[in-house]
Structure formats: structure tokens, C-alpha cells
Write a structure and sequence with these properties.
Blueprint: H1 2-5, H2 8-35, H3 47-53, H4 60-65, H5 73-79, E1 86-99, E2 102-114, E3 119-127, H6 130-143, E4 146-147, E5 167-171, E6 174-180, E7 187-188, H7 191-200, E8 205-210, H8 216-228, H9 248-251, H10 253-257
Parallel strand pairs: 7-8
Antiparallel strand pairs: 1-2, 2-3, 3-4, 5-6, 6-8
Helix pairs in contact: 7-8
Length: 265
């Protein structure tokens, strides 16, 4: 229908389609080969990156405690041993832009990362090729990594297994509610919800959703926002007096002040 309507543009559009498909397949294979080469040593460009590389910040929880923004994905790689952080491509869908020379095809990729022990990240990336979109999605997901608080449904026996309270997240028209469940009930929800809670390390949970949940991107973002809300709620067991500690930038200000000599070109 679209091709007929554009007259001349129909021919170009056709060519554009063929090109896009061919490129995606061919270069995807090349992309895989490229990644196998040795990576360059990480040179941090942010203050947080410098502190992490020097081992001044012992755990990622210190970053979350002071709400420091993570701008480099290598910071996450420093805290998690290789193989600990699993990633999975949740959705790839093509998007098109109409130009004077036909269509321009690109691919949006949604990637989920998690250690199945209280940390989860969701990233999206749009690129001309699938392989590039996946790589960019993994990097985006690592920089979006958040802590997930887990709790109990009833008695505090054993390790935490469910969400600590009813939490809610929304994105677009999608509304997702996560409700604590007794031990052994598993995750009651859609396959996407099950996968996300598995990556977050939540074993039992009831879920309730409304809106256009078929839009997988928005459904994942809504679930992600619900998981983020687990640490946003101040429960009575956290009412103890706050023990303030210096933020890392203040604690290591003397170290950060020692700037390396910049080579002028």
C-alpha cells in the first residue's frame, strides 16, 4: 500500500528495504569477529571512574548510597566478576524513517542485564545494524543498573525471597504492580515479567498489570520502575538514626585534586 502511494518513491523505498536487510545480516557477522580482539585498557574520564579504578570505592553499594551517577559502563565491570552479570536481548524491532530517497531502516534493541542477586539494568539502543544495537544496548543497560530490595511475605525465615512491599511502576499506558507472595509460589506473571524478576533475584511475586502490555518496551520499563521503587519506600525497620558518612568525592578530594599533566597538541 505504501509503495503504490508514493509513485517514484516506491522504487527507492524498495531499494532501501533490500539494503537495510542485507547490511544487517552481513555486518552483524563481521561485528562479532571484531569484538574478539583485545580491548584497550580503560582510561577513566570521570571522577567516579578514577576512584573505582584505583580501588578507593570497595563496593557498588557505596555508589548507590550517595546517588552518584554512573557515566562509564566499565565502572560496573570493575565490581562484577566476569560471568556474574548476565545479559539477554529482550526485543529487537525495526523502525523506519521516510527520506527523499526512500526509507531508512534502523533497529531498536532492548537489553536486560542482571546478576540474579539484587541488581538489574534495562537499556535500549537504536542503530543501523543489529550487532551495533545489541552492543550499545548492553552498555546502556549496565549504566542503568539499579539495586533491588528484597524482603519476606510472612516470617523472616531464611533469605529474602520476594519484594518487600507492594510496588507500582508505569510507562506509557502500561501500569505494573508487584505484590509480595509466599515462599514457593514462584513469579505469577507474563514471561517478560518472569525473566526480569529472575534477573533481579526475586523468587516469588504476584503481578498485576493493565494498559497496552503488548508493547513490550513500555511493559519492561514499567516493571523496571516498579523494581526501582523497592528502595524508594522507607519502611519502619529503616527508621533508625542515620549514620552519615562522607561521600567518596569529599573523602578522596585530595587524590582527585592531583590531576595528571595534560599533553598539549
Amino acid at each position: 500500500m505504501g509503495e503504490g502511494g508514493f509513485g517514484k518513491g516506491g522504487g527507492f523505498g524498495d531499494k532501501g528495504k533490500g539494503k537495510g536487510k542485507g547490511k544487517g545480516k552481513g555486518k552483524g557477522k563481521k561485528g562479532k569477529g571484531k569484538g574478539k580482539g583485545e580491548e584497550k585498557e580503560w582510561v577513566p574520564v570521570t571522577k567516579l571512574g578514577r576512584l573505582v579504578k584505583e580501588g578507593k570505592i570497595p563496593s557498588i553499594e557505596d555508589i548507590y548510597l550517595h546517588s552518584l551517577p554512573i557515566k562509564e559502563y566499565q565502572i560496573i565491570d570493575q565490581f562484577f566478576a566476569p560471568g556474574t552479570l548476565k545479559d539477554e536481548v529482550m526485543k529487537i524491532h525495526p523502525v523506519q524513517k521516510m527520506t527523499s530517497a526512500g526509507q531508512r531502516n534502523r533497529f531498536v534493541c532492548y537489553v536486560l542485564v542482571g546478576d540474579q542477586n539484587g541488581h538489574i539494568g534495562l537499556g535500549a539502543k537504536c542503530a543501523k545494524e543489529v550487532a551495533t544495537a545489541i552492543r550499545g544496548g548492553i552498555i546502556a543497560a549496565k549504566m542503568q543498573l539499579i539495586p533491588v530490595r528484597r524482603g519476606y511475605w510472612g516470617g523472616r525465615i531464611g533469605l529474602p525471597h520476594t519484594v518487600p512491599m507492594k510496588v507500582h511502576g508505569k510507562c506509557g499506558s502500561v501500569r505494573v504492580r508487584l505484590i509480595p507472595a509466599p515462599r514457593g509460589s514462584g513469579v505469577v506473571g507474563s514471561p517478560v515479567c518472569k525473566k526480569m524478576l529472575q534477573f533481579a533475584g526475586v523468587a516469588d511475586c504476584f503481578s498485576c498489570s493493565c494498559g497496552h502490555t503488548k508493547t513490550k518496551g513500555n511493559f519492561m520499563k514499567a516493571t523496571f520502575e516498579a523494581l526501582r521503587a523497592t528502595y524508594c519506600y522507607l519502611t519502619p525497620d529503616l527508621w533508625k538514626p542515620t549514620h552519615f558518612v562522607k561521600p567518596p568525592f569529599q573523602e578522596w578530594s585530595d587524590y582527585l585534586a592531583q590531576s595528571k599533566p595534560v599533553v598539549a597538541y
